[in-house]
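Listing S7. Sequence submitted for prediction.
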Amino acid sequence: MAKSSIEPSRAVSGVVMLAVFVPALAVADIWRYTSDWVDFSWNVSATETYDDNIFNSATSEEDDFITSLGFNTSFVVRHPYGQFNLYYRFDQSFYLDHDELNDTGSFAGFGQNQNISFGDSLKPSRRDVITYFVGLSRSPETLHLAGQERRSELQDVDLEGIVVGQDPLTSGSARLSYNHQFVVPVNFGLNGGYTISEYDAPERNDSRTTSGGANLSWRISPIRSVGLSYGISLIEFDQFERTRTDTYSIIYYDQPSPTWSLTVSLGASVNDTPDDSVDNVTPDIDIRLQKGFKRGSGMVGYSRSIGTSEGFGGASENQAFTAAGTYQHTDVWSSSVAATFSERLSDTTRTADSRRWTIRYNTGYPVGRLLRLRAGYLFSRQEIAGPRDSAGEVTNNQVFVGLTYGADIL
């Protein structure tokens, strides 16, 4: 395995940028404007990352130091019926030993990330809530594809997908939901969404996803609730047959003590896909057990569901085990750690088969009123099947240190 040799002076130059970039922006109280109905905030960041396998390759690992400069802003408008939010983020990465990746042009590819979104949560009455969200992003794919969005209000267990390389991806999405709280402790909700994913690489498969669903929950006591959920997902690919999944679930939540909580979603997915390796009916499971401690929290979880082989076409069976925790070292210093095993399998879309182990650690410490130090580590080992450079066993280590200067983004 050939490793690139990085001159020490070039690596040091990236770290020096962190020390020079942030103090130069230390202008007093220009980072946030707040009034009775408007809140505008922004910050800038600089991060230095060492990555020992920047192309996520199983056969020819190359390492590099990466300097990333970022801009992050939000605009909030409070009104009688809710709160409108507008968010924008821009990041540009500079590879010290791979200059060909430093495309800084408008809507650039490999090293650039842009994300803009807006939404609102409207309350036309005391018992009704209407929420909408519209987002557009342009970025290279990261180490993994995120897990599919759940059909209920449950937060995903950390389901991770495949190492797919760094193909630039443009994605747009819109979501709309409605919730009504009855006089009795029963809540009814409807939701719908539409997502477009387009890749620059011609060998990748663009897709359009239409989703919808309904849920009904009943709070049977102050610490316990049950519910029913239905979701539908229709995915059209440019070069693959349509995939449809209908999911039916029963949801149970229990908080036996102030520090313990259990969330269980059990159901089944009815699948209409040309992928013969996916059964017509498959289990849909999401279980999480959470514990609060005096100075932190812990969580263990398991999920199993049908997902989409984004960028390739077809369906895949996904499952993941996760253990995670947070710890508050002091009033201002906190850390988090997470370990995950995830699996994504599909015989037809063989390029999407993977098993992955990850360990993450992140910490942050406020150095001053506006300055925050961030650091972390990511280990990833993945077994991938498929006729491409990343097939085989891919190992990746990333270490980063960064500074953020400015206001916290609401």
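Caption to Listing S7: primary sequence and predicted structure tokens for the chain studied. The first helix runs from residue 8 to 21. The CA atoms of residues 170 and 311 lie 12 Å apart.
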